[in-house]
Design brief:
With about 775 residues, the protein is mainly beta. About 5% of the residues lie in helices and about 55% in strands. The chain has a 22-stranded antiparallel barrel. Strand 21 (about 355-375) and strand 22 form a beta hairpin. The longest helix has 16 residues, at about 1-15. The radius of gyration is 26 Å and the shape is globular.
């Protein structure tokens, strides 16, 4: 209760203190059901806010695609972790908990367990940046559209956007018409989802309230053979309330509050293979302990004595106030958010207390304030200038416990507890100016001056009751001196835009992106690492050369967009894993390169028929990165003294080819009904989850989804049947070595599976009033 009271108190304080700002209303409209379309507005324009102002997508000199609410619904995409299924440029790497999961754009993304390292792909919800990656993994609720901004977006989006940004926009209250929509669905794995959204006019044309909520529950897809428990399930709920008040034609006040919980028995890895020689402290072999399972890529069983759970709470409040002054738009967004998680996993994968406890309790708080001044559109010079403030505090406690490799008397164990906290402050001034030299030619210039400071504390102790520390996963008792990282940076953007005809636009830009310094707060932090200055990672610098063409052809029958890019990252903040040391390590990679092309097309050949396709060709390369050898790697394969230089290799989990095709058709049936059909296919080429290790290869795979709907022509009632992964293509969202299941000649491997890796069916009903 204190948590929710605090959120709404902060919201009220923000409302009282914020400077007025301008109307940023964007009327929701039916979408076309394609991955580029967000709104079916006159002329088939797609409106985005990728440059902090409403613009036609075809006029925006940024590599951006739009995922509409219907695309998400047709493909049963319910969270950011599933976006890779509908957006080829996005990648997702799974983990044993949300703290370790990560998103990537164009193959670049941060996958990290350290509280002192922030994501490279920023998530922004209704204008509020999310400070921690884990807080971004929530179930979608009342989403209007998601703008996928590729490449560095630091000039306007700033925080954590050196690789790109996901701009999530939720539905706004309707000032003129009240409405109610409710949806219920049931599918494979007893997947039950309930959603409802209501918009109520409080004062015609001046004030409206919108409330939405959801409840989702599904059985786990993994069975623990020890006790029959189902793991990797879903159990979540959430609510969001919004108040929109427009006291005058030039002023609006938009207040949002949200809260959600996720209580999952997640995320358990299953075993693909084992080493027959792996023997534990009591003489039992891993092979014998797991003999009851059918090991392999399709394994959906575990045999463990520990627990898996991820209990997560997320919420906050924001106030956006808009006003016009002398034709200028002044915008203020004030927000406070909190995130809490308590998770545990049993990483050893056997029914022995090798590592039976591996948990974390984390609480994150953040406060943000953004002020913007925006010029009127259509003037010879258009600009956006602003100030940004970000404060974040993360406090966490982790515990590890078990015998590891020691045969101890009953009741005795090894263990560590690590208490850490980190406070981050980020202050920035930013701006972007577009000068229209002629009706066709425009020049673009932007900047962001950032000052960043992070202060952290680290205290590792022996877990109460333990007889000694746990090596690798913990270590001897150690209190680090206060860790600090400060930096000031100027990032910028230069570009040219040419409007050849009203329907053809070309652009070229150069952008320098930035992510601030990071701190190593991993469990196994050591005094030598701190004393050598290696606990502070250098800032991450991105440089992106990009050119694109936006076209609308054949009397708007075809929309075709093409983008080419060459992007480099210097001192990328990377996490690697040593199977031999059974520990994670942090380092600055020398240089990362990602280059390629993106093609997006929509064809409307007939009334009611829409065909779309999206292609991403991404060629990645790492240079100057030294990591541990993979198990069994020989000197001939590049291993020297347990280390390998992976220069020239592609980035992990970065497929070279990814593409999607979508067909959507709708037609009236008689005088009262309308039928529609949607078919989509997404393909991702092969990739490795660990450098050069062939046993971590995920082969290329394609997912076929379909949906048939029958609705009343007035849209009041709708009934749908759907299928996901209709061809039952199995794939893993992560493959890695088993804990302690390694030797000089090889290793056993584990994998993370999700429900999307299996064929599912279901039915959905919707009512609207």
């Amino acid at each position: 209760m204190n948590y929710r009271r605090k959120s709404f108190w902060m919201c009220g304080a923000a409302l009282a203190l914020s400077a007025p700002v301008a109307v940023h209303a964007q009327d929701a409209a039916p979408d076309e059901g394609t991955s580029m379309a967000a709104d079916d507005v006159p002329g088939d324009e797609i409106v985005v806010t990728a440059q902090k102002r409403e613009q036609n997508l075809q006029k925006v000199p940024v590599s951006v695609s739009v995922l509409s609410s219907s695309v998400l619904a047709d493909n049963r995409v319910s969270g950011l972790e599933q976006l890779a299924q509908v957006s080829p440029s996005i990648g997702f790497t799974n983990s044993a908990n949300t703290r370790g999961q990560g998103l990537s754009i164009r193959g670049i993304g941060t996958l990290n367990f350290s509280d002192g390292v922030e994501p490279s792909v920023s998530t922004v919800i209704d204008g509020v940046v999310i400070g921690r990656s884990a807080a971004s993994f929530f179930e979608f609720n009342d989403i209007e559209r998601i703008e996928v901004l590729r490449g560095p977006q630091g000039t306007l989006f700033g925080k954590n956007s050196s690789a790109g940004a996901l701009n999530v926009v939720t539905g706004k209250p309707d000032l003129n018409e009240s409405s109610l929509e409710a949806t219920a669905s049931y599918g494979t794995f007893d997947d039950v989802r309930l959603k409802a959204t209501g918009s109520l006019v409080l004062d015609q044309g001046r004030a409206a309230l919108r409330i939405s909520g959801f409840r989702s529950k599904a059985d786990g897809i993994i069975t623990n053979t020890v006790d029959g428990r189902k793991l990797n399930d879903n159990d979540s709920w959430g609510v969001r309330a919004k108040l929109l008040f427009e006291p005058s034609d030039v002023t609006s006040i938009y207040v949002i509050g949200d809260y959600g919980e996720s209580n999952r028995n997640c995320c358990a890895s299953t075993v693909r293979s084992v080493l027959p020689t792996t023997t534990y402290y009591n003489g039992q072999t891993r092979a014998a302990l797991l003999a009851g399972q059918t090991l392999g890529p399709l394994n959906r069983e575990v045999t463990i004595d520990g627990d898996y759970f991820n209990r997560q709470k997320t919420g906050g409040a924001s106030v956006e106030i808009n006003t016009e002054l002398g034709g200028q738009t002044i915008t203020s967004i004030t927000a406070y958010r909190e995130f809490k998680v308590f998770d545990n996993n049993d990483p050893d994968g056997v029914p022995l207390p090798v590592v039976s406890l591996n948990n974390a309790r984390q609480k994150q708080q953040q406060f943000t304030q953004e002020l913007r001044l925006t010029s009127p559109a259509g003037e010879p010079v258009e600009y956006v200038f602003g100030l940004f403030y970000f404060w974040q505090d993360v406090v966490s406690q982790t515990q590890v416990k078990g015998n590891l490799t020691v045969n101890l008397p009953a009741g005795q164990y090894l263990g560590n507890q690590v208490d850490r906290d980190i406070t981050t402050k980020n202050v920035a001034a930013f701006g972007q100016v577009t000068g229209h030299l002629t009706d066709e030619l425009s020049l673009i210039g932007g900047f962001r001056l950032t000052s960043e400071q992070a202060v952290a504390h680290f205290d590792r102790t022996i877990l109460p009751g333990a007889i000694a520390a746990m090596p690798s996963l913990g270590g001897p008792a150690y209190v680090a001196p206060t860790l600090k990282a400060t930096d000031t940076d100027l990032s910028y953007k230069l570009g040219v835009q040419y409007q050849a005809t009203p329907d053809i636009m070309a652009y070229a830009t150069y952008t320098r992106g930035y992510k601030g310094p990071a701190l190593n707060l991993l469990n196994n932090l050591t005094a030598p690492t701190v004393n050598a200055g290696l606990a502070v990672l250098r800032p991450e610098i991105a440089r992106n050369w990009e050119a694109g063409v936006r076209t609308t052809l054949f009397d708007r029958m075809l929309t075709l967009n093409v983008t080419g890019f060459y992007e480099t990252f210097t001192d990328f903040q990377a996490q690697t894993y040593s199977a031999i040391l059974t520990s994670f390590q942090l380092t600055n990679a020398g240089k990362l390169i990602t280059q390629g092309a993106e093609v997006e097309a929509i064809l409307r050949p007939l009334d009611g028929l829409s065909l779309s396709g999206n292609l991403a060709y991404t060629d990645t390369e790492v240079r100057g990165l030294i990591v541990s050898c993979y198990p069994g790697q020989t000197a001939a394969q590049g291993c020297a003294s347990g280390r390998q230089d992976v220069t020239g290799e592609a980035l992990t989990n970065a497929p070279k080819w990814a593409w999607s095709l979508n067909a959507n058709y709708g037609a009236d049936i008689g005088n009262s009904l309308r039928g529609s059909a949607n078919l989509s296919f997404t393909y991702r080429s092969k990739t490795l989850f660990s450098y050069r290790d062939p046993n971590t290869e995920q082969r290329g795979y394609g997912l076929l989804n379909g949906r048939l709907s029958l609705a009343a022509q007035d849209g009041r009632y709708e009934l749908s049947v759907f299928g996901k992964n209709l061809t039952n293509q199995h794939f893993a969202s992560f493959i890695g070595t088993g804990l302690l299941d390694t030797s000089a000649t090889g290793a056993g491997y584990t994998q993370l599976l999700t429900p999307d890796a299996f064929r599912t069916f279901g039915v959905e009903g919707t009512v609207r009033f």
